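Amidohydrolase-related domain-containing protein
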Amino acid sequence: MVERNLLNGVIELHVHPAPDIQPRKFTDMELAEQMKEVQAAAVVLKSHTFPTMARAEIVSRLTGFSVFGSITLNDEVGGFNPAAVEAALNLGAKTVWMPTKSAANHRKYFNLPGGLHALKDGKVDNGLDSILHMIADRDVILSTGHLSFEEQRVVIERARDLGVKKIVIDHPELALTRLTVWQQRYLQIFGVYFLRCAVYLDLSRSYADVLKNLTELGCSDTVLSTDCGNTGLPSWPGLMEEYLQYLLGHGVTEEELNLMTKVNPAQLINLL
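Tokens:
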């Protein structure tokens, strides 16, 4: 650890612990204990396959650390399934992620057929439209998952029309969801947040590309996250500290880091 604890008060919105259908670096319990030890503030658990609210509540009670759940609209929950989302929200989900591994855009990137499309004839799918109403009513986060830019654009416009306040663009530096500076500027019009993750698909670090986007677009609407959990990566404290130290060493101020790791995520999950 460095002399000053950069992780004190940090909130993590995008992390993949076990149990999962693939090996993970740490369990829910281990992650919560690690974060508690470095005085982080809270975490939202993500799974590509199954809602995490029940896991989050159990771990939160056992550790005394603030752990929250989410749902990802992949095939395993029926895709754009309003009933699944309603149940998740009733159980306290903080984030509703659009499809990731089941998204047509994701599958196209990996040369796979099929996948879920958010749009039908250029408009938001009926099931998704019902879900957007629910997200607006409950004031939780709509995260764009692995949708294409065109899907994101239309879904975000519709979400704003319905009163969704908290919209997060997931890892715009990642190859399969990469957005140009122009595309990000366009989405900024809708008051979105950009969740900029520490790693790429091959587990190399995204820090330099994140720094370029921060330089071009500013820090005010960014949330920094690790997207860790892969067995080839460091523990959460190690990776997040490495990420923040890089940015701090390349001109990002500590005040800006606090905004991106504490203030913005706290507002998104209603801790402020």
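The chain has one domain: 9-267.
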